[in-house]
Amino acid sequence: MKTRPGETVHVHLTSREVAVAGAAFLLKLARVARSTPTVALSGGSTPRAMYDHLRTLDEQAIQPLRRARYFFGDERAVDNFNSESNVALAMNYFLQPLKVPYSMIEVPNGVAATPAAEVKRLNQSLRCKLARAAGGVPRFDLVFLGMGTDGHTASLFPGTRALESRAAGYVWNRVPQLKTSRLTLTFPVLNAAKLVVVMCTGENKATVLEDILQHGGTRRTRHPIGRLRPTRLVWLLDSAAASRLDDST
Ligand code: 6PG
User: Fold this and answer.
1) CA-CA 20 to 30 A from 38: which of 4, 90, 126, 197?
2) In the predicted structure, residue 247 carries a pLDDT above the cut 90
3) Ligand 1 atom closest to Cα of residue 47
């Protein structure tokens, strides 16, 4: 495989094992962090298995999770009660059941109705509540991301303007291929993170992962997620997603 410095690939047999491994990164951060840890949660469906696993843990294990501050890597142009909402998934299956205080959750509110105002409010919150990396970029301790079959991550879709944004925060990104717009963190923030964990499962992700992790170079950077270069990047893959990777190289 052609991984970059600071990048590791963990292949697990099943998607459930990926979920348990992802949860372990969050639990460790919450347990050992000396100040309030900051976390960006991923959208899509993959995180659901991690949330399901977290809900099975005992009070002693989950208690530290309530001291972390949670943001969302991206959100769709829907309200927070819509079944398509990334916020709804985390609130319903993780944050509310585990009684994370609402004051520790930065929820995009009505972003579709007033995107400019909401982007401004969330970016102020990022600047106030996160540590800063070089250049004053807000720095997350941990960012969870997924990957679409087209190589997008967060809502940084191929060919969209946000891919080139130098804004260090959220932007409202027009996604013509979906005939919608979405709220998303930009690469300056994702790449300033101390640790990014990508959870990726399923055969339908294998071809893009082969470009990124087996071939590298322009076959990597042609995909939005291939532009990730945080201090530390961990890929948590199940065997189906990793089926086109040759782990001997
Ligand atoms: C979204 C996500 C997106 C997601 C990938 C993978 O809003 O859809 O932010 O980046 O992580 O599309 O989605 P799955 O986990 O459903 O495969």
Assistant:
1) 4
2) no
3) 15
| Contact criterion met (CB below 8 Å) for 208 and 220 | no
The average pLDDT across 149-157 equals 98
- Confidence bin at 249 (pLDDT 50/70/90): very low
Instruction: State whether residue 91 is helix, strand or coil.
Output: helix
| Cα 90 from Cα 26, distance rounded (Å) | 14
As a whole number, the mean pLDDT across the chain is: 97
Tokens of 80: 């927070």
176-182 CB contacts, 8 Å cutoff, 24+ apart: 177/150, 180/76, 180/77, 181/77, 181/112, 181/115, 182/74, 182/75, 182/76, 182/77, 182/155
- State the distance from the centre of ligand 1 to the C-alpha of 175, rounded, in angstroms: 14
For residue 28, the CA-to-ligand 1 centroid distance in Å is 24
Give the span between the Cα atoms of 148 and 100, in whole angstroms: 28
- What order do you get walking across the sheet with 196-200 strand by strand? 7-12, 233-238, 196-200, 142-145, 38-41, 69-72
Mean pLDDT in residue range 52-68: 98
pLDDT at 248 over 70: no
Distance (angstroms) between ligand 1 centre and the Cα of 152 equals 8
Which residues contact ligand 1 via a Cβ below 6 A? Answer: 42-46, 73-74, 76, 86, 146-148, 152-155
For residue range 96-110, list pLDDT tens digits in order. Answer: 999 999 999 999 998
